[in-house]
Amino acid sequence: MKNNLPLIHLLPFERETANLDFSIEASIDIRQGQIDLKFVLSDPAKKVEVDLADKAQGLKRTDGLWKHTCFEAFLSLTNKEEYYEINLSPAGKWNAYYFTSYRNPHLPMATEDIQLRSLNWSSSALEATLDLKTKKANPELWECALTSVIETISGQKHYLASAHMGPKPDFHIRSSFTLKRGS
User: Fold this and answer.
1) Nearest-5° Cα angle at 69, 53 to 163
2) How far apart are CA 136 and CA 91, in angstroms?
3) pLDDT < 50: residue spans in the chain
4) DSSP state of 107
5) Pairwise CA distance, residues 93 & 149, whole Å
6) ∠ CA 79-181-10 to the nearest 5 degrees?
7) Residue ranges covered by each domain of the chain
8) Residue 90, preceding bond cis, omega within 30 degrees?
9) What is the 3-state secondary structure (H, E, C) of 114-163?
10) pTM (2 decimals)?
C-alpha cells in the first residue's frame, strides 16, 4: 500500500458530550483505479470490541458490518448524487455498495465496481487496497468521507466521521463527503 497521506482525526458525532477512551485516524488515496484506505485505532484502555473470530476464514463479502465495529469510506464523483459505500471489518469481512442517490436503493445491493485486493488488520491498524472499476463516469476527482462505527465492549456504539452534517449520525449525507481525492 502506498498511502502516504497524513492521517486525519475522525470526529465522534456526540463530540460535545463524548469522553471517549479511544480515537480513530484515517486516510484515503485514490489513484489510477486503486483505492488505498488506512484506519488507525488508538484504544489504550481496550474498550473497543474488535471481532477477529472469522479472520482465519480469509476475506469474506458480508452485509450488515455497520452493526458492529466497522471502518467505512464513502466516495462520489464531484457534483454527482451517486456514490459508493465501502465497509471493512478487522475480521476480514468487507462489502461495497452503489447508491444512485441518498440511500437509494433503500436496501443496499453490493456492487462489482469495487473489488477488495487486500485487507490487513494489525493490533491497531486496518489497511485495505481496493480496485475501482467503474464505467459510470470519467473518474477524475472524488469527494470522500471516512467514517467508523465503533462498538465498545459494553455494547455502546459511537459514530465517528471526517465530517458530520446531519442532526443525527448519518454517513450517507452527501455534504459530508468533504475530502477531495484525485484519480
Assistant:
1) 155
2) 31
3) 1
4) S
5) 14
6) 100
7) 8-182
8) no
9) EEEEEEEECCCEEEEEEEECCCCCCCCEEEEEEEEEEEECCCCEEEEECC
10) 0.92
